[in-house]
Amino acid sequence: MWLDRCNTQKSKLVNEKLKQEKVTAELNALKSQIDPHFLFNSFNVLSGLIDEDSGRAQKFLGRLSKIYRYILEKREESLTSLKEELLFADEFMFLQKARFEDSVIMKVDVDDEHLENKIPSLSLQLLLENAMKHNGFESSRPLRIDIKSCNGFISVQNNKQFRNKLVEGNGMGLENIKKRYDLYETTGFLINETKDSFEVQLPLL
Description:
Number of strands: 7
Strand content: 15-25%
Low-confidence stretches: none
Mean pLDDT: 81
Radius of gyration: 18 Å
Strand order of the largest sheet: 2-4-5-7-6
Shape: globular
Structural class: alpha+beta
Distance between the termini: 19 Å
């Protein structure tokens, strides 16, 4: 009981800090929109499925609705359970695989004991989008994304592959995640990049 009260008080203090910091505006901007290309491409896939297979089209639409519902529900939350984030990531990748099929492969290896731990809301979606945005992929050379738990962290790692038309980012998303960890006085957010791979480590809260 006492520990719950302490956690609640700390959460209130962090929320007050969020209101006062510039990170609030950035967080709301990040949550209030999905990459417009993702939306455009999703509707293109849906349009094709309606003509080809109405059953698959209905299933696709159901998953797309879940994604938007989740974003609306998490708009005001800075942290979300790892379990919820992984379920959301699965919905997100279902839509991507409907478009890219075996060109994108996601594997998850997370210990059940960590599922109730918290990470910044929508952080997995951001990292998945980044991996697909900055790398080339096709069935003969798929993009491989591995999500795993290790030593109190969630690691999201992908192979790096040349893309003809590079997409420039402003780094706001990754910086926003880091700022949220800073507000919770949590260290350990790391970005590890090599010639062949890109990894982000998210501390579990």
